[in-house]
Design brief:
It is a single chain. With 201 residues, this protein is of the alpha+beta class. It is built from 7 helices and 6 strands, in the order βααααβββββααα. The strands form 3 sheets. It has a two-stranded antiparallel ribbon. The relative contact order is 0.22.
């Protein structure tokens, strides 16, 4: 979906914004993940976007620094039918963090729109570009990068401690509950009302 064009563009599904709280511009964490797996935003299934969003909210709630290696520890990437199949996240051997937002997303493919940055200079813009290059793949990719847990990535001491704290949580955490905390002024209280949270940091 998508292709080379002047000016460039990318597609997004409405449910990303309506249900999951995705915003533009993407966070650096979201850009880092899309680059790591070499996938366009709309190539990643909605139930995988919910894991990305919930992880960011959870880290903010617990005071854990956002880190791609921490997230990768809990997930693996499944590839759809080549050459342009969906990509989706499932729990790694360590087990995932969250429940699915929806057991069956229906008709979401019919609600999409095109994001077209207008009058943007790639050498000056820092929202969709960095150093003249797009901050994430704009178009569907034929060769997404599969991973299963951390693989060969090295962990810092702080990341290892954060993983230990997250592994101690009662999983899977309710994805909808975690996402609802994004706009709450009392995130920790909302989390503790549902779960008994112990963490060492």
């Amino acid at each position: 979906m998508g292709g080379t064009s002047n000016p460039p563009f990318f597609y997004m599904y409405q449910c990303f914004f309506r249900d999951l709280g995705v915003c533009l511009p993407f966070t650096q964490f979201e850009c880092d993940f899309l680059n790591f797996v070499n996938s366009a935003p709309c190539q990643l299934h909605p139930n995988s976007w919910d894991f990305l969003r919930a992880f960011q909210v959870l880290c903010s709630t617990l005071g854990i620094g956002l880190s791609l290696p921490i997230f990768l520890h809990f997930y693996q990437l499944k590839l759809g039918v080549p050459p342009y199949g969906w990509v989706s996240l499932n729990g790694s051997k360590a087990g995932g963090l969250f429940s699915l937002y929806s057991q069956s997303y229906k008709n979401f493919k019919q609600e999409f729109f095109r994001v077209l940055p207008k009058e943007v200079d790639p050498l000056e813009d820092e929202v969709f570009y960095f150093g003249g290059l797009s901050r994430f793949p704009l178009y569907w990719q034929q060769a997404p990068v599969r991973f299963n847990g951390l693989a060969n990535l090295e962990l810092s001491t702080s990341n290892a401690a954060a993983i230990k704290d997250l592994e101690a949580l009662p999983r899977p955490l309710d994805c909808k509950l975690i996402l609802s905390l994004a706009s709450s002024a009392y995130k920790e209280r909302g989390l503790e009302s549902e779960y008994i949270v112990f963490f060492s940091c």
